[in-house]
């Protein structure tokens, strides 16, 4: 079977999958592979019962589970950083809109960001102020950070007043409050 693996070449992954799903799975045991997800302590090395498997090189097509964040329930640093950036971009798009003639003080953007994520220590630790302003300039086309005298601003964005859902809810309250009060 080792010779078949070495001769498989580009079809190594399907050969490996076929081996794990076949009757020879008993050599590895259920403590190494559980439902196709590697456990955290399971190393991609052969069992002592089959030392010949140690000679099989680890395929570059299969990412090393120890460094890829493929463990069940364990996120890698890259995943945490990208999730942090995704949350910040979503927040920026929710709070601000592109407008070439407007400008927003950078301290206002930073304080609003800190207030929005005060219970999310990971996102706050992930993005510093300069990184947030850089992200704002990349999120909105035409936005830039500038310094006008003592004033540090983000030019090209405006703060959204309220979402259409909040405006409709406020209108509904005004209508219902007026109708209740007048009756």
Outline of this structure?
The protein is an alpha+beta fold and 183 residues long. It has 7 helices and 5 strands; from the N terminus they run H-H-E-E-H-E-H-H-H-E-E-H. The protein folds into 2 domains: 2-55, no CATH class; 77-167, Arc Repressor Mutant, subunit A, CATH 1.10.10.10.
Task: Write a structural description.
The protein is α+β, with helices and mostly antiparallel strands and about 180 residues long. It folds into 2 domains: about 1-55, no CATH class; about 75-165, Orthogonal Bundle (Arc Repressor Mutant, subunit A), CATH 1.10.10.10. It is built from 7 helices and 5 strands, in the order ααββαβαααββα. It has helices at about 1-10, 10-20, 75-95, 105-115, 120-125, 130-140, 165-180, and strands spanning about 35, 35-40, 95-105, 145-150, 150-160. The strands form 2 sheets. Strands 3-5-4 form a 3-stranded antiparallel sheet. A hairpin with a 2-residue loop joins strand 4 and strand 5. Helix 3 (about 75-95) packs across helix 6 (about 130-140). The longest helix has 19 residues, at about 75-95. The protein is globular, with a radius of gyration of 28 Å.
């Amino acid at each position: 079977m080792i010779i078949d693996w070495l001769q498989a070449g580009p079809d190594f992954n399907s050969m490996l999958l076929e081996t794990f799903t076949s009757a020879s799975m008993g050599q590895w045991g259920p403590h190494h592979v559980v439902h196709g997800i590697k456990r955290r302590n399971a190393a991609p090395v052969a069992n002592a019962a089959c030392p010949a498997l140690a000679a099989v090189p680890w395929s570059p097509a299969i990412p090393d589970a120890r460094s890829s964040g493929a463990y069940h329930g364990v996120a890698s640093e890259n995943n945490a950083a990208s999730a942090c950036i995704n949350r910040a971009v979503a927040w920026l798009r929710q709070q601000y809109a592109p407008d070439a003639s407007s400008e927003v003080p950078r301290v206002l953007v930073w304080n609003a960001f800190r207030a929005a994520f005060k219970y999310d220590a990971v996102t706050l630790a992930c993005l510093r102020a300069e990184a947030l302003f850089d992200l704002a300039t990349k999120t909105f086309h035409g936005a830039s950070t500038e310094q006008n005298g003592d004033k540090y601003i983000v030019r090209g964005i405006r703060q959204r007043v309220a979402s259409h859902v909040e405006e409709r809810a406020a209108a509904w309250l005004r209508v219902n409050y007026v109708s209740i009060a007048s009756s």
